[in-house]
Amino acid sequence: MTDNSVRLAILGSTGALGETVLSVVRSFPDKLNVVGLGAGTNVDLLAQQIQEFEPFMAHIGKGRWQDSNIDLKDFRFVTDQEMVNHQEVDTVVVASVGKVGLEPTLGALRSGKRVALGNQETMAMAGSLLTDVASKQGSEILPLNAETSAIWQLLKGETSPISRLILTSSYGPARPREAGQVPSMTPEEIAVHVGRRMGRKRSIDATTLMSKAVQVLEAHYLFNIPLDAITVVYHPENIIRAIVEFEDGSSKAHFAPSDPRLAVQTVLLFPERLENELVLRLSLTTAGQLTLRPLDESDFPLFGLAIAAARAGNTYPAVISAANESAVDLFLSQSIGFTDIAPLVERTLAAHQATSHPVLEDIMDADQWAREFVSRQVAY
């Protein structure tokens, strides 16, 4: 590493996205320096990462360092807030999943850090709050998700407003029906069906298109794009990440291989674009054709519910994020079936009494209410 390397604190380092981030660090050791690592319960993997990357601090959420097979008793463990506020951290990478990412993200923004945000639920539940804090503190939120990163790259250098944003999904009118057994699939079978390396919750959200709805919300909050100006289309080849259409009728599209490392390194190394031998090059001639078709939202009720929650605003986005997370957890534990997820989330939204102009406490209260409501619906 060099004196000019970017000093990273990575929360959620043991998850799928966290390991992707560390893969990028391995490819650019002179550019990226890990100074902090954080995990929830996977203490053994965290200990291995500490040995390899040699950060000077780490955070464990629910686990205990004593449970590790590696002796960590002399290592410096800190709270997530201590880590994100540390003066020797340049960029905070939030690679965790769920509401656990919200408070450290806010803490990092309030301390003026650059935040590389991979925790989609955080932006979905509190997008307005996060962007307001970033604006007031002069902080940056840079998206690690491939599609949202594509929008960020497409808009760089543009000063005129756009008339339309098109996001693509490799799921669409036919994909779930092609595997007619999806409603009866187990979580493990759905992960195979998705065909991409991601965590268990992410694979479910990809199948229901909740993750795509969250990308719409991210684009809305991060880039101030009206919800009515955002369209999602079916793109089975999974090559075009996003298209922006300008008021003069011209469009810009972002093409990229389906490799999450590319979006990660684009953010972490910005403004440099460097070759990574692990990332395969895109071949349009091999693709043969590019298909773009309208998305049939009736196949994906959670997508429509999430957009409706975003339109309603207030604490509804926090509620749908929490309700979905709780319902997916119930499915992963086989307490409910796949087709029970959307109706359960819909009932939660219908029962919610929203709080106007929510602050952090209101958002966390709404989150907790939604989780308890979902739990009561399936209690025996």
Explained architecture:
The protein has three domains: 6-143, Rossmann fold, CATH 3.40.50.720; 148-307, no CATH class; 313-380, Rna Polymerase Sigma Factor, Chain: A (Orthogonal Bundle), CATH 1.10.1740. Helix content is 46%, strand content 15%. The chain contains 16 helices and eleven strands. It has helices at 16-27, 43-53, 80-85, 102-110, 120-137, 146-155, 175-178, 187-194, 200-208, 210-223, 260-269, 284-287, 301-312, 316-332, 341-351, 360-377, and strands at residues 6-11, 32-39, 57-60, 91-94, 114-117, 140-143, 162-169, 230-234, 240-246, 251-255, 293-294. It has a six-stranded parallel β-sheet, sandwiched between helices. A five-stranded mixed β-sheet has the order 10-9-7-8-11, with helices on one face. Helix 1 (16-27) links the parallel strand 1 (6-11) and strand 2. The protein is globular.
Key words describing this protein structure:
single chain, 380 residues, alpha/beta, Rossmann fold, Rna Polymerase Sigma Factor, Chain: A, 3 domains, six-stranded parallel sheet, five-stranded mixed sheet, 16 helices, 11 strands
